[in-house]
Amino acid sequence: MTVEEPAPVHPALDLDDAVHQKTRLALLTVLDEAGRADFPYLRKVLNLTDGNLGRHLDVLAQQGLVEITKGYAGRRPRTWAAITPKGEQALAAEMRLLAALLERFNNRG
């Protein structure tokens, strides 16, 4: 009886579903660049509806990747999102994995 070694797991399977979804990846990238952004800015720059943006921010907040704060700008209520240290780490890990996948793709042949 021979014991076969398990096949290596493809690195693409290590993509984080919470981060890798394109809108959430875009949100984390924008927040990483800006530090903090309000809801109207995020909605405009990512071309999202209020509901769609709110849902993606909720998913990221539940994972501890962004922090949502509410307050006022003058008399107008505002909602801000900021990337957390955990979010920065998750984004960096995702980018490293994407870079490794790109290198693997470019070196095929």
- Count of discrete alpha- or pi-helical segments spanning 4 or more residues: 5
| Distance linking N and C termini | 35 Å
Q: What would you call the shape? A: elongated
CATH classification class: Mainly Alpha
Integer average pLDDT: 92
Oligomer: single chain
CATH topology: Arc Repressor Mutant, subunit A
Could you please describe the fold and organization of this structure?
The chain contains 5 helices and 3 strands, in the order H-H-E-H-H-E-E-H. It has 109 residues and is an alpha+beta fold. It has one domain: Orthogonal Bundle (Arc Repressor Mutant, subunit A), CATH 1.10.10. Strands 1-3-2 form a 3-stranded antiparallel sheet.
Helix-strand blueprint:
Elements lengths: L16 H4 L1 H13 L1 E3 H8 L3 H13 L3 E8 L2 E8 L1 H22 L3
Task: Write a brief caption for the model.
This protein has 109 residues and is α+β, with helices and mostly antiparallel strands. It contains five helices and three strands. The chain has one domain: Arc Repressor Mutant, subunit A, CATH 1.10.10.
Name its key features:
109 residues; alpha+beta; Arc Repressor Mutant, subunit A; three-stranded antiparallel beta sheet; WH_DNA-bd_sf; DNA-binding; WH-like_DNA-bd_sf; DNA binding; WH_DNA-bd_dom
